[in-house]
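Why does residue order matter? Because the sequence determines the fold. Keep that principle in mind as you read this record.
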Amino acid sequence: MDVRDCKQYLIDFLLITVVTVWGFNFAVMKLVYTWFHPIVFNAIRFVIASGVMVLLLRFMGISLRIDRKDFRGLVSLAFVSNALYPFLFVLGLSRTRAGNAALLMALTPVFAYLIGVFRKRESFNFAVLVGIVISLGGVLALVLFGSGEVSWGDTWIGDSLMISSAFCWAWYSAEQTRFLPKYGAIRLTVFTMLSGTVMIIPLSIPWLINQDWSGIASGAWVGLGYSALLSIVYSYFVWAYALSRIGVAHTSVFNNVTPIIALIAGWLLLGEQPSGAQLVGVMLVLTGVFMVRSRKPTAIPDE
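Structure:
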């Protein structure tokens, strides 16, 4: 095994840790919503995440300087990824079932790959597309044959918001590759996070004022910290790094491992036994991920 293979496996491992964090984050957010309004929860976790990211940037001695010609594009990217996406996600999750949310977010790799091809950030490869569709089929089996947490009739508003959030994250993943070679994963992530937080806070003021701050359980604050530090700070850095090394399709397909983590979490923490059909779904997801990752990543040229 050469050094390049070791680096590829390291990136795969890091992405597995990210989807593990995200897999548990669905349940964490649902629990925390008992004490926090979704918009308040979102605003606070973004403030915490932004503060930690800035401290890390200063500690590493990395400048946040951005070329004027890139400013408009980066602010637009920040709006989609860290203002519009989280609003759609937290409001969608609060208005639909966990199964619906997991299934609809699994559309992200499809959106990201197609956007990447359309925007010429990714070269078209039929085998990659087939792998993504197979993994999507696995997610379908995982959710539909799960605990019954899927319902489409009375959750159409939340489902529509989740589809929109999946598209926003896909757009961010595809468009981010345009700036990663120039600014790197850390500087780009911090700039878009800060810009998005500046947009979020004014919009969240009415809900922050009306939030009942008395009697919030300590566990809710722990869940908030988990979502801010692991689901955002750690995961966003790793995601940007992976995009810069292995491309849009190869990174985004790992989104579809998240329902597997949710299945394992339900088994370990809640005693929910997976069905045979769900185990087939697991195999389909892993097969699809392997098909995509076995293809040579699209190189992102340095400037």
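The chain has one domain: 3-293.
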